[in-house]
Queue: 2 jobs
Job 1
Amino acid sequence: MLALIAGQGDLPRAVTGALPEPALICAMESSPPNRVVPDHLFRVEQLGSFLRWLKAQGVTRVCMCGAVGRPEIRLSRLDLPTILLLPKILRALKRGDDGALRIVIGLLEDAGFEVVGAHEAAPKLLPEAGILTRARPGPDAAQMATLADAVSHRQGLEDLGQCCVISGDEVVAREDQRGTDAMLGELPPVPGGLFYKAPKPGQERRVDLPVIGPNTAVGAIRAGLSGIVIEAGGVMVLDREAVIEMLDAAGLFLWVRERDA
C-alpha cells in the first residue's frame, strides 16, 4: 500500500489523480495541503508513532509530494518513539533543503518503508523527451539552454532554486527561496528569452523533483518569452494538456531536453 505525505500546491492533487490505485493521504498539521483532503494528520512531535501507525495500516511505500514548511518542535509534546528520532530530526531542521530531505528519507527507510518519487508513483506526470508544442525552438535556443545548464549547476552548488530565465548570453533572473511563481511574477518583458527548469545536480530525485504547470505557462507568456526548456526525465508537467494548449495559442515552445553533459 502507498501512503502520500502531501504538502501544499498542485502536485499532491496531480499525483493522486494519476495513481493506478487509491493511496492513503497523510499530512503534517503544520503544513496541511490546500488541494487534497488528507485522511490522516500528524505532528512532527509524534513522528515515531506516526511511522508505527503507517505500518499498522499496511503501508509499505511512501511518497512525499508538495511544499512543506519547516515545523517548530515543542519538546513538551514529544512522545517516546519520537524522542529516539530527535537527534536526526533536529539535524534535518538545520540542513539546507536537499540535506534535510535526505535525512527524512533515511528515517523512512530505517523504519522499513520504500521511498518513491512522485514521478515513480505517477509516471504519467513525467513527459517524454522532445518538443511538445507546435512552435519549435529557434537557432539560438540551444545556446541559451547550454548557458542555463551551467547556471543550474552553480545554483545546485549553492542549494538555490531550480530555474532561471536566459536571454541571449545573459542571465535575466534566477529562482530564489520564494519560488518559481514569484520569479516569473516579477520578471520584466524578455522578448525571445527562455525559461529553464531542471533538478539541481546531485539532488535527491525521490523528493522535490521540479514541476511546471499552467502558472508557469502564464508567466512565460506574460514575459514575452520564446519558450520553456525542461530537463528530460527531471521535471514533471502538471495539467499537461492545458499547458500545451496555452503555449500553442501564444506561439511558445515547450522543449523537453536532454541536459548537456
Note: The chain has a mean pLDDT of 91.
Job 2
Amino acid sequence: MNDGKVWYDGQLVNAEEATVPLLSFGLQYGWGVFEGIRAYPSSDGYLIFRLKDHVNRLLRSAKLLGLEVPYSEKELYLAVCETVLANEHADYIRPIAFGGQGSSVALGTTDMPTHVAVAATRMGEYVPGAEARGIDVITSPWEKSRWRALPVTAKICGGYIASVMAKRDANRHQADEALMLNANGTVAEGSAENIFIVEHDTICTPPLSAGILEGITRDTVMQMAADLGYEVKEKEIAWDEVVSAEEVFMCGTALEIQGVRSLDGRLIGKGLPGTVTKQVISTYHDLVRGKIPKYLAWCDRAETVVKSVLI
C-alpha cells in the first residue's frame, strides 16, 4: 500500500525501515491516536485540507489518552507536508502517535516511549462509483461505544475495533457502509463517518452527546450548508427517521461526502442522491480544491507550509 517514504520519529525514511517493536503498547493494546487527512492536487501544488484542525485533534486525543507527543504543532504540520511531497500521487495522510516498547507489557507500564509517524498513500474514491449511485448501508449489530467505556471524541487506535467489525459485516452483506446506534438505541454514526438527514430543507445530524466523533468533515458540512442557506440542526435521530428522510448522506475524510440510497434494503427517497446532497457534494469538491475564496484558510499548500516552517 505504501512503498514510498514515511516520516518516522523526526525523519523521512523508506517505508520498509519504519519498523515497530513487537511488544509496543500501540501494537499490543491499541495505545495510540491517529488522524486521516486528505490532500488534493491543484494548479498550485497539493492542498492539504484543514491540516491545523487535524493536527490539533491528534494532540487533543493524545492528551485524553495521557500520551505525550514529543513534537510541536508546527513540527507536525511540517511532517505531514514533507510526507505528502515525498510520495507522488498520495492523497490520504495518516499521522499516528503510539506507545512503544517499555520495560514491561503489564497494563500499568508507563515508561514506554512515544513514537510518531506519518504515512501517505493513494486513497482515491473510498467507495468507487458512489457519487452517482449513492451508498447502501446496513444497521450494525455493534453498538457505538459510550463515554463511560471510551473517550469517544478522540481518535484512539484501539477504539476502532467495533468500527472495523461493523464495516466488515457491511461488506459481507454486500453493503458499502454500516450505521451504528448508541446505547440509547438512537443513531450515532457510520463506521468512520458522521451522518446527516434532510427534512424539508433542514439538515439534521446527531449531537456530540449521541457518542459521535466530532468530525472535521462534519464541521465543514455544517458551516458550508449554513452558508448555502440551509438550516442546520443537531438533534437525536431515531432509526426510522433515517429510513423516512427525504435525503441522507454520510461524510468523513476518507469517504468525503456520499448520499445514502438505502438502509437495510429500504430505499431512501428515490434511491439516488438527492438535490440537497448533490449541492453539498459539489460545493465540497470545489471547497477542498481551493476554488471558493471564503474557505481558502482551510486549504494549506504543502510547499508553502514547508517553506514557512523552515524559515
Note: DSSP finds nine helices and 17 strands in the chain.
